[in-house]
Specification:
- By secondary structure, this protein is α+β, with helices and mostly antiparallel strands.
- The chain folds into 3 domains: 132 residues, no CATH class; 226 residues, Orthogonal Bundle (Hypothetical protein af1432), CATH 1.10.3210; 63 residues, no CATH class.
- Strands 3-2-1-4-5 form a 5-stranded antiparallel beta sheet.
- A hairpin with a 2-residue loop joins strand 1 and strand 2.
- Helix 1 crosses helix 8 and helix 7 packs across helix 9.
- The longest helix has 29 residues.
- The radius of gyration is 24 Å and the shape is globular.
- About 5% of the residues have low confidence.
- The structure holds fe (ii) ion (2 copies).
- One fe (ii) ion binds next to loops.
């Protein structure tokens, strides 16, 4: 019985995924709708209803918590929770049309998901499905980043981990889950970009490879969306970014983390991660497209073609590779902030600008910092009047003068647009793991 329920729920969510990926008219969606309807009808042939609940981070059917399923479907659970859905019930008598309308309904953007759901259902002719929503606490405006954002980030990191280890073990990749997860990030970038960028820039540099992959992916998608790419391209760039260093996972950690200087031979080995990555991603062209191959191959090919792999002819990087290589270096340098070297954002900015025109396309690099700001969103900074502030959003006109929230001392608490207050300026960055730690949650 439980197997059938799991199958039905899985089918339903892949139906939601394919609707979001391909749209309603696409045969992929119709196919998955057929499958979901078949699976649900099977369950409803033996019982009157099927009620699925979301408990914490898990899915539950009656008293069973479906742990395994919850792990695979975490991004979808987060998606439902973001819409405050905690319980979905299907009743016997459900038709395929109703199911299709229901899936269309929950695929709507989060912002549209207000009001009386049941009333909306009856307008749409959906009689055999009901959903209950969580009560939202109106007083909880959510300081700093919201739990849903942190969950979205963590669940995406899980999916990234699964997608990477799938490729490493030459298994099939659940590309729908991966795309769903990155797609969810793209959608959240438009409304919650501060929180997501804060998670990527400030919160997470204690973890390694998967975080780097996810961060580079988030930065690349954000950058691509600021540059005006359309959604399909942004998603493809995000996927390519995620696999850019896949070849490195085949190189011994001893070489990768060697503290001293590398021998020539070791350096050749490291450089081979580009070619190796491209070869690996060739196997996934069917599902993930050609861009991951291109980006894995080109991401160390510098703007002036002085990087690697060495090419016998001059070849300009694909724009996706240029985007990823900027975000790659940015994340790698930013992650070092937590360790001994203490790379504060101004150091990262200066280091990257030193390679302006050689490593990086100068125009593209300028745009990157224009969108990211000189001080990343979420940074804790000290001002010239001695107060402490959190960076809220970059300024359009002056990358060094973002909008900030002063958090200490308490009597000075307020939002400030630094472009409007020439007397105030940012003096120094506070390391969020050390002196800045106590202020981090105060925004
Ligand atoms: Fe690399
Ligand atoms: Fe990298």
């Amino acid at each position: 019985m439980l197997n059938n329920i799991e199958e039905a729920f899985k089918a339903l969510l892949s139906c939601l995924q394919s609707l979001k990926m391909y749209g309603q008219a696409h045969p992929m969606f119709q196919k998955s709708l057929d499958k979901a309807f078949e699976a649900l009808s099977e369950v409803l042939s033996t019982r009157q209803d099927m009620v699925i609940g979301i408990v914490g981070q898990d899915l539950a059917f009656e008293k069973e918590v479906l742990f395994d399923l919850a792990k695979i479907l975490r991004p979808a659970i987060v998606y439902l929770k973001e819409r405050n859905i905690e319980r979905i019930a299907f009743y016997r008598g459900l038709t395929k049309e109703e199911l299709g309308s229901f899936v269309n309904f929950i695929a709507a953007p989060k912002a549209d998901f207000k009001g009386d759901v049941q009333a909306a259902f009856s307008l749409l002719g959906i009689e055999h499905v009901s959903i209950s929503k969580l009560k939202v606490d109106p007083n909880n405006k959510g300081g700093g980043f919201s739990l849903a954002q942190a969950e979205l980030y963590d669940s995406s990191a899980d999916i990234v981990g699964q997608a990477l280890s799938g490729v490493l073990n030459s298994e099939k990749v659940d590309h729908l889950a991966l795309k769903f997860s990155l797609n969810n990030i793209i959608e959240n970038l438009s409304t919650q970009r501060q929180e997501l960028l804060q998670l990527a820039t400030v919160k997470r540099y204690d973890m390694e490879t998967y975080m780097h992959m996810l961060n580079v992916s988030i930065f690349s998608m954000y950058f691509a969306s600021c540059l005006g790419f359309d959604k399909a391209d942004i998603l493809n760039i995000g996927i390519a970014a995620m696999y850019h260093d896949i070849g490195k996972l085949f190189i011994s950690r001893k070489i990768l983390h060697k503290p001293g200087e590398l021998t020539d031979q070791e350096f050749v080995r490291i450089k081979s991660h580009t070619l190796m990555g491209a070869e690996i991603m060739m196997r996934y062209i069917d599902t993930l497209g050609i861009l991951p191959v291109v980006v894995a191959y080109e991401h160390h090919l510098k703007f002036d073609a002085s990087g690697y792999p060495h090419l016998p002819f001059l070849r300009k990087q694909h724009i996706a590779s240029s985007i990823v290589s900027i975000c790659d270096v940015y994340d790698a340098l930013s992650q070092r902030r937590g360790y001994k070297q203490d790379y504060s954002p101004d150091v990262v900015y200066n280091l990257m600008n030193r390679d302006r025109g050689s490593y990086f396309d100068p125009e593209l690099l300028d745009k990157f910092f224009k969108f990211m700001g000189y001080w990343p969103i979420g940074s804790v900074v000290a001002l010239n009047d001695g107060s402490i502030a959190l960076v809220k959003s970059p300024s359009e006109t002056d990358i060094r003068r973002p909008k900030i929230q002063i958090v200490a001392p308490p009597e000075k608490k307020r939002l400030v647009d630094l472009t409007q207050e020439p007397a105030l300026s940012i003096e120094r960055y506070l390391n969020p793991w050390k002196e800045g730690k106590e202020y981090l949650e105060m925004g």
